[in-house]
Specification:
This protein is an alpha+beta fold. The protein has helices at residues 2-30, 125-132, 137-148, and strands at residues 39-45, 48-55, 60-62, 65-66, 70-76, 78-83, 86-91, 94-98, 105-108, 112-119, 133-134.
């Protein structure tokens, strides 16, 4: 049963990996273009961190690669975003639980607010980013491999 679960997890990871590779390639090209500074607000509560991102109309952006599942809320706006291996056009209000390994690419049709929520008591934003995101595909793969070698998994 455990081997079957690991095999299924690995197969799903391979599918997500090829999509992430495409998003990483798009991000690399986009980084050669003029960049837009986005307004970020950080909110903290007991065991909760919320990162609120204001994204102006007509912005194309790529998010971080997430190590853990996280809650995402579009609280304002109209956006086309990669969800479940497909680009979907969504309008606020919209909520989705993203799986571990999610790396999004999006286009805003209107000014939008995207909120990502993580469960943590940490309040240092850099430490939160380091804990919850990976900077590369290899860093994410290394993280997954470390998780698979933990006792009880």
């Amino acid at each position: 049963m455990v081997k079957q679960r690991l095999r299924i997890m690995n197969e799903l990871e391979l599918l997500q990996s090829s999509i992430r590779e495409k998003v990483f390639k798009a991000e690399k090209l986009m980084l050669q273009m003029p960049q837009r500074e986005l307004e970020v607000k950080h909110h903290f509560s007991h065991g909760i961190y919320a990162r609120e991102l204001f994204i102006p109309k007509d912005t194309i952006l790529v998010g971080k690669l997430h190590k853990y599942p996280q809650l995402n809320i579009l609280s304002m706006g109209d956006i086309s975003v990669l969800i479940d291996e497909k680009v979907k056009r969504i309008q606020a209000p919209f909520t989705v639980v993203s799986p571990a390994g999610a790396k999004r690419i999006a286009y805003t049709h209107d000014d939008s607010i995207w909120i990502t929520i993580h469960g943590t008591d940490e309040t240092d934003v850099d430490a939160i980013e380091e804990t919850f995101t990976a900077n590369s595909e290899q860093e994410y793969i290394d993280f997954i491999n470390r998780q698979l070698t933990l006792p009880g998994i």
